[in-house]
Write a structure and sequence with these properties.
The structure is a single chain. The protein is α/β, with parallel strands linked by helices. It has a single domain, classed as Rossmann fold, CATH 3.40.50.720. The protein is built from eight helices and seven strands, in the order βαβαβαβαβαβαααβ. Strands 3-2-1-4-5-6-7 form a seven-stranded parallel sheet, sandwiched between helices. The longest helix is centred in the middle third of the chain and has 29 residues. The model has no long low-confidence stretch (mean pLDDT 96).
Length: 253
């Protein structure tokens, strides 16, 4: 029995892209709250495993390419079997391409939309079918973006995918809330990750970004942990279809 509304003891979470950055931080936070972790992606999450096991929890890695929908039903099945059930799905894996809209290629469009939106939907569908068939409750946490609210520049497919993800979060919440499946999203602000290296390396752009963030700093991956645990836990049982900004106050500016 859970010791409190934020306790995840006995739960299992599937986290995509958990080998680094935001996914790693989310996996570590869920483990610290008591969850075992199934990490899905192309790279062995060695450091994430150390962090999870340091919390006294287990980690199972499933080697999978999330750019294709073909392995997603097997991923859901294997994640379900890893520790005898699945309670939480974190759709964190994503990619980005940068180019002026006038020269943006079809390949860059398709690559980003495939990972960030298409695979998210079909993996969520595959996991939710297990919950629906078993009559079990479940928690889905999508990792959206500030560009779920704003337009951005030079990231056409990324903006489209993250805007679509916000809509998909609301649609799935509408369909599944009465079936005890919570679907919500976290929208990280400007965080210190691989995706923002180019921005942080540009002195003018970095200064402009920091001047707008009321908190006065870039986000650190572990800043997402509390929001992830909340949305994964019984504390959020009556929260459906929310896109929760974790942005240092950016959108409030």
């Amino acid at each position: 029995m859970a010791a409190g509304p934020f306790d995840l003891t006995g739960k299992t979470a599937l986290v995509t892209g958990a080998n680094t950055g935001l996914g790693q931080a989310i996996a570590a936070a869920l483990a610290a709250a008591g969850a075992d972790i199934v990490a899905a992606g192309r790279t062995d999450p060695v450091e994430t495993r150390r962090m999870v096991e340091g919390c006294g929890r287990r980690l199972n890695w499933i080697d999978v390419d999330l750019a294709s929908t073909e392995p997603l039903p097997r991923l859901a099945e294997n994640a379900w079997r890893a520790f005898g059930g699945l309670d939480i799905l974190v759709n964190n894996a994503g990619t980005i391409r940068r180019a002026d809209a006038a020269s943006f290629t079809e390949a860059d469009w398709d690559d980003v939309m495939g990972v960030n939106l298409k695979s998210v939907f079909f993996l969520t569908q595959a996991v939710a079918r297990h919950w629906l068939d078993a009559g079990r409750c479940g928690k889905v946490i999508n990792v959206a973006s500030l560009l779920s609210f704003q337009g951005g520049i030079r990231v056409a497919s990324y903006t489209a995918s993250k805007s679509g993800l916000a809509g998909l979060t609301r649609l799935l919440a509408n369909e599944w809330a009465a079936r005890r499946i919570n679907v919500n999203a976290i929208a990280p602000g400007y965080f210190e990750t691989n995706n923002t290296e180019a921005l942080r390396a540009d002195p003018d752009r970095s200064r402009q970004i920091l001047e707008r963030i009321p908190a006065g700093r870039w986000g650190r991956p572990d800043d997402l942990g509390g929001a992830a645990v909340f949305l994964a836990s019984p504390a959020s049982d009556y929260v459906h279809g929310v896109v929760l900004p974790v942005d240092g106050g950016w959108l409030a500016r």
